[in-house]
User: Fold this.
Amino acid sequence: MLFHTPEFIALMIVSLVFFYAFPRWRIPILTIANMIFYVVAGVGNLLLFLAMTAFTYYCSKALRGPYSRFFLWFSIVVNVANLVFFKYTTFLIRSAENWLSIKLLTDNSFLLKIVLPIGISFYTFQMIAYLVDVYKKRWEPAQSLLRFWVFISFYAHLVAGPIMRGKEFMPQIDNLRKIRFSAANFRLGAFFLTLGIFKKVVLADYLTPHVDEFFSRTATLTGAEGWVAAYMFAFQIFFDFSAYSEMALGIAYFFGMELAVNFRTPYLSQNPTEFWRRWHITLSNWIKDYIYIPLGGSRNGEVRQYTNLFIAMTISGIWHGASWTFVAWGMFYGLLATIHKLYMMIKEKLGLGFLDKSFIYRFIAIVVFFHITCIAWVLFRVNGLRDALSLIKRMLRPEAFQFTGLNVYLGIVVLLFGLHVVEYFLHKHRSGLSEWWHKYFPAPVRAVVYTGIAALLILFLRGEQNTFIYFQF
Assistant:
């Protein structure tokens, strides 16, 4: 169920009415609402999700007993096995077929009929984080199975994040009865929901057919066309994914709750470390806290640190999809992060730290890293590692930057980057701008502007509604 469909809007409105009308019944109300939201993906998917939720909940209760370590690893292994079975089984068998030159799957094999349960990657990581945090006594187990279900399945963030931790979200679930209607929260929710819908239906969905057209002929793209395709996909996936995250923020504010921010204008990053602090922030933090640091982090020397960093980023790539292109994408960022660490060390030894204060240096670093990011997006978007590497090779030739006949597309890309910069300043000065808006513009003028924005979005919503890119993960 997409956030910008009439069906979801109806579900949200009914949920809100009951939520504020019956404060004592908020857990059951959200329990039912979450089930209705998820059952659209299929009854089987819902039953699987319910089973994994119940399993994880009861295992978490055992993490305070004498066999806590056993139950921790048993529950993690089952959660990971569930994810691997539904997401990677066919990929692993197909890879084995290619390596061994034998056929393991027949055309009517039931494994080929496996449907990836929507949101499984996100709720699996959230459950693992919860189990580890309970085991390490960072958080107490949920008071009831229904509370845990609402924590895991709250429909605002269920399908594509943000990935919430126990310490971030469980206190809000436990205090649901105390939440009171807040006009300020509703204004903030409306702002984020509107921003997300605008990004999705006006920007991301506009770019989709152009991006699809370019990548439908990957094998014949010139280097220049490859860059244009990568530029446009970079903004398509950003506007699409950040739209979902911001709509999730808005929906949560309607219910008086707050979710973690998942994006902070990532294409203004100067290096891979900064990029992953701005892009899919909750996943980056999850990888750091539950993969990188347990592996040893930076505690055992530089070589071990770089190895751990490479492994963590590779796992991040694998999490995104069952394809060698995603593995290569993760490894690419692992290599980039390692090179950046070495570069920072060399720069410090040469006494060049002052460069970080230079506007020209920062501008060049942003431009260069944006192009490196676009190379990575080719690995993410193209089907088939050989085709992706072939296109990247053409993009790295000197003549690839002769954009003859592509000026219109370049103009669109420059406009999109400009919007990205505007978004940065809007978020940075949000409080001041809101105060200025309400101070200098009377209510009738604001009402006209809001009506115009709503009319524009309704006009775009009348067209075909595309699913969110990250729903496939």
